[in-house]
Amino acid sequence: MSTGVAIVGAAECDLGVTGKSILGLQAQAVGRALADAGLSLRDVDGLATTGVSRFSATQLADYFGLRPRWTDSTFAGGSAFEMFVARATQAIQAGQAETVVISFASNQRSARSRSLGGVVEEHTPEAQFETPYGPLYPLSYYAMAAQRYLHDFGGTHEELAEIAVAAREWALLNPAAFRYGTRPLTAAEVVGAKPISSPLTALDCCLVTDGGGAIVLTTLERARDLRKKPVEILGYGERTTNTSMTAVPDLTVTGAVGSGADAFGRAGVTPADIDVVQVYDSFTITVALTLEALGFCGRGEALGWIADGRIRPGGDLPLNTSGGGLSYCHPGQLGILLLIEAVAQLRGEAGARQVPGARLALAHGTGGILSTHATVVLGVEA
């Protein structure tokens, strides 16, 4: 199935330690994505972004001198960009916009702006029942989910570490990756790294880098006349489940169950049909929970399911082929880069990490503390 909307441009801005401003990186990302599509700012009548300020899309439109017919600044953490794809698709279908740019950039490493403590309002459940214990936000919450998962299903930290090991192998194939040119990683190194929040160590946690990117969407009809192979939006879904962990009935079940089911249903495909998968890897446990929730394997089965190299280069489920947030780039919100890597794979532009014959891709964003979940299924014509 197809929505009649396609991604026609995709590009990263500079990554790693850039020394550039957020708006400067945004300008890079948008300019490169439009050039990739063979379009210009004059063509843009829709804009979606978040993280620049409280008025993200407004500020970015003003910076570019645009007066878009449609904007979105939904703040949902790392899943926002997969949500933007759904909103932009609907706006294009409705005739509210014809060419939409979705973008994000952050200079958090250069600016040393990454905060481990969230601002908690008085009288909220988290202020009463969580904040007094001094959790690292969001790390301690994901660590609690990992602890529960390993307790319930009998897995080991060494098995969970396979996710970080696989991510590093993909990063070694990606010249843009922060960990490119280092060396392979072992499970023992992950387990033996600096403890951060039990059971997670520093190597279970995503990078802190500058970076970002942009994608350009338009109608499939128009896309066929543009520079690159159109990457069609086939399906999407989302769920918002919780702010804090206080009221979560089961830390091992996430809203990706619903977002994935909706996305697969709209696309008319199943997990078995997907050729390449990009899922948010803020922490190793995020990947295990997401794979199960999306239906790639059964509940409690993820660690055994990936143990034979299944998600490494050459495995039968290529996962986070850029190196992901664990070894490629994590500028605070990874969701836009998941989409960009999916597009590169479907166009056959991923170089040494290219998955042969990839025609269907899934990108899944997770935001907050397993709070927001958004899934997008993309495809190219044979």
Automatic annotation (TrEMBL):
Occurrences of domain Thiolase C-terminal (ranges): 237-379
Lineage summary: Bacteria, Bacillati, Actinomycetota, Actinomycetes, Streptosporangiales
GO molecular function, one term: acyltransferase activity, transferring groups other than amino-acyl groups
SUPFAM superfamilies in the cross-refs: Thiolase-like
Entry protein name: Thiolase
Source species: Nonomuraea cavernae
InterPro entries: Thiolase, Thiolase-like, Thiolase_C_2
